[in-house]
Amino acid sequence: MQGKPIQIRNITPGGAVEIHPTSRKKIYIRSVMGKIERLRRGTGLLFLSVFLLLPWLSYAGQQAILLDFTAQRFHLFGMTMWPQDLTLLAWLFIVSAFALFFVTALWGRVWCGFMCPQTVFTFLFVWIEEKVEGARNKRIHLDHQPFSLQKVLKKSVKHSLWLVIATITALTFVGYFTPIKTLVADFATFELGFWPLFFIVFFTLCTYGNAGWMRETMCTHMCPYSRFQSSMFDNDTVTVTYDRARGESRGPRPKKLSAEQVKTMGLGDCIDCNLCVQVCPTGIDIRNGLQYECINCGACVDACNGVMAKMGYEPGLISFTSANALKGKAAALLRPKVIGYFIVLLCMIAALSFELITKKPLDIDVVRDRANLYRETLNGSIENVYTLVIMNKEQHAQKVSISTEGLPKPVFHGKLSLTIEGGQMVRHPITIELDSQSIEQAVTPFSIIVTNESGDAVNSDSTFIFR
Ligand code: SF4
Ligand code: SF4
């Protein structure tokens, strides 16, 4: 039996405009103002302020946050972390990941829509674009115009402003890894070294490219989070949702029609104005249901609420709500998935806190002299030589004393008390001498203990070798 051929039609997202048939469709985001836009501007401003100011914060006379990869040391508010302490950072990442899962299970991708740097910078760049080139229609018109002095001027101003912001961003970012005051001074006087300059140029191009050109493709094609976030969703997760039952059938109608007349025409509340699509930074139509491209930014909520107000309808045709709430079911906050994420999150916070609380201000490693296992002195005693590697994990100087446990009446050659500068590591040679008569075995295990003035002690096991 031969069926009817299926009609296929190409659909172009409403917010996207095809500039070249083979290239990505450019999205011209329409600006919108409303409660959610104000909230997002607030959170974006908070993120930018924290990001820009943090590296300038000082603590105990030093940069409060400095991730010094060259010296293999991380300084965090007076605490110095060495490669051995990377478990702390691992815990921090695990806590952040579970906090994100927990928030996602409750409120969907609010991180993406409100705090993700990609979103914050994209909205900032779009704002600049609008200030320079005008509203959405003017920008579309400008892009389709042939080259003119006015077009070149507008494009130059826009790209220059984007590059200035991208450079400030890159300088700040690199300032987390190298002392920012010196970095900015060297940048201003053109005295930057090769690597700082390389990374500043690299991150400038990344910011400029991501927020100016790639925009939504970062979220839809490169960000792994958008791919697996739906596994954290359930029917009670709050996401941006279109109320299909209320909105359909969609269609334009004169504003002056009464509710009764609209109903008689078989129309729902959606007037099919397409504004929700034009304001969408990823160019999708939320009326088609939940899509992985949706970053939960709520721009379509503001746009639609504005339309509803103009039409004299109730707001909330598009809103932050859950599938169950739309069906009129009571919202269930405490559900297995949320409780599960919360319990795991608490356990991870407890583990991180334990690591932080029990973190010692010092660390020690003992290296035996491998060339000479032991040596006999003229008076018949036995000597072993060690190098103590002592790390000061605080940012202030610490005076430490050295002792041993497990050796019979040791005699030390070398300083038993020394001062280590903040965040520094010293290699301290020491020789231990024992009376040969007191040594009972070829290999005697013992501990070397380093104690600071506050009584905090760290120890490392070693052996005393004879024969
Ligand atoms: S903004 Fe609201 S009314 Fe306009 S098309 Fe979107 S859902 Fe329909
Ligand atoms: S559909 Fe709405 S909430 Fe989702 S990305 Fe687009 S504008 Fe933002």
Question: What would you say this structure looks like, in words?
Answer:
The protein is of the alpha+beta class and 467 residues long. Among the domains are: 33-86 and 97-228, no CATH class; 362-465, Immunoglobulin-like. 41% of the residues lie in helices and 19% in strands. It has 16 helices and 18 strands. Strands 10, 11, 12, 14 and 16 form a 5-stranded antiparallel β-sheet that branches. Strands 15-13-17-18 form a 4-stranded antiparallel β-sheet, with no helix packed on it. A hairpin with an 8-residue loop joins β1 (16-17) and β2 (26-27). α2 packs antiparallel against α16 (336-357) and α6 (149-174) packs across α8 (194-214). The radius of gyration is 32 Å and the shape is elongated. Bound molecules: iron/sulfur cluster (SF4) (2 copies). The site of one iron/sulfur cluster (SF4) has 14 residues, from α14.
Compile the SSE list and pairings.
Layout (H helix, E strand, L loop, with lengths): L15 E2 L8 E2 L7 H19 L4 E2 L2 E2 L1 E4 L4 E4 L2 E3 L4 H22 L2 H6 L1 H17 L2 H9 L4 H26 L5 H9 L5 H21 L1 H7 L2 H4 L10 E4 L1 H4 L11 H6 L10 H4 L20 H13 L6 E4 L1 H4 L9 H22 L4 E7 L6 E2 L5 E11 L5 E8 L5 E3 L3 E4 L4 E10 L8 E10 L4 E9 L2
The structure holds iron/sulfur cluster (2 copies).
